[in-house]
Amino acid sequence: MTHSIIKLLEKRISANLFDPAHELPVADIEALVRVTTRAPTAYNLQNWRFIAVRSAKAKARLRAIAYGQKKVSDAAVTFILCGRLPDAETLPERLRPSVEAGFMPPAMAQSWQEGARAQYADAQTARDEAVRSATFAAATLIHAAEAQGLSSSAMVGFDAAALRQDFALPADEIPVMLVAVGRAADGNWPQKPRRPVSEVLDIL
Amino acid sequence: MTHSIIKLLEKRISANLFDPAHELPVADIEALVRVTTRAPTAYNLQNWRFIAVRSAKAKARLRAIAYGQKKVSDAAVTFILCGRLPDAETLPERLRPSVEAGFMPPAMAQSWQEGARAQYADAQTARDEAVRSATFAAATLIHAAEAQGLSSSAMVGFDAAALRQDFALPADEIPVMLVAVGRAADGNWPQKPRRPVSEVLDIL
Prior knowledge:
2 copies of one chain form a homodimer. Chain A is α+β, with helices and mostly antiparallel strands. Chain A has a single domain (4-85, 120-181), classed as 3-Layer(aba) Sandwich (NADH Oxidase). The first copy, chain A, is built from 9 helices and 5 strands; from the N terminus they run ααβααβαααβαβαβ. Chain A has a 4-stranded antiparallel β-sheet, with helices on both faces. Chain A is globular and about 55 Å long. The two termini of chain A are 23 Å apart. At the A-B interface, helix 1, helix 2, strand 1, helix 5 and helix 7 of A face helix 1, helix 2, strand 1, helix 5 and helix 7 of B.
């Protein structure tokens, strides 16, 4: 497996140290998010929102919520990845372009809406989907950043309730993860060794 | 953004139709999972397990649990991605190679264990982490498969309770997703259009 993408996935590290002088232009942030949204979501729900924390002032607020982690403010941008609780009522709008493009039959869009309504009536299932969608986005963002020669760090160490309040998240949004993106500084750790495949894989 | 990885992320589709004659050798499955485990996890917990469903018999069992979806058995392999509820007691073993490699101070490994113990005392937080880890793995598996010229489909449409029973998942494992991997057949839909970036991105 020698493809350049495989090499990128194999050598990725979660950076802890970022160059605080490095900035990302707004156009670059938008381009990263455009690629990020190609991640899959169930029913094509696209149940996510991305808050790119870029200014010194907003970074200071977020850093306090993330227990003072320096990388939150040192990285060019720290993204707050929000998953939204699935809302079947959003599906007609999300699927309309696929219907209009002619490949998705209108009746199928309707049946997907009914399917989603039934599936997410259970609160835990709905929350799981919000976490899945935002995490798919996080992985895609991280791989897109690597492709641009940038480094990243996914973080779950933050006060979710404080974040919700300070950044005014609506009730249906779950702050799933922070992802810092920027230029790695010197001194980051190597990749942490992984468990052997035999320990985590069963083939049936 | 013209890097080949960006192109790959941009053009990926979730395939619905797979070539049922295509098989993946065990060595290829192991190689895919080896790359998959380079995905990040909180505290380097690596709280996951991968069940590669490859035989006709096992595929038939899984397909029944996945409401008869044909791709489950048509794809060369359908992976069951299990996230494990984080167990801080596993961390000394997971982090030992990083300590032995000399970059992680032993005291830090111990403080991570204490951090994880506190963080995951809350059951919802623990479940969220299992979903996150397995989804990070799913995204990495999907991108690794694309790099090999294969196609994939992430699925959440399955009976989780039946899967748990039929595949004998232990109580601390959550079946987060199925991911079919194989050779796409003709007739798959194009990529479903995405929402405009301006609708999902806020820059602060």
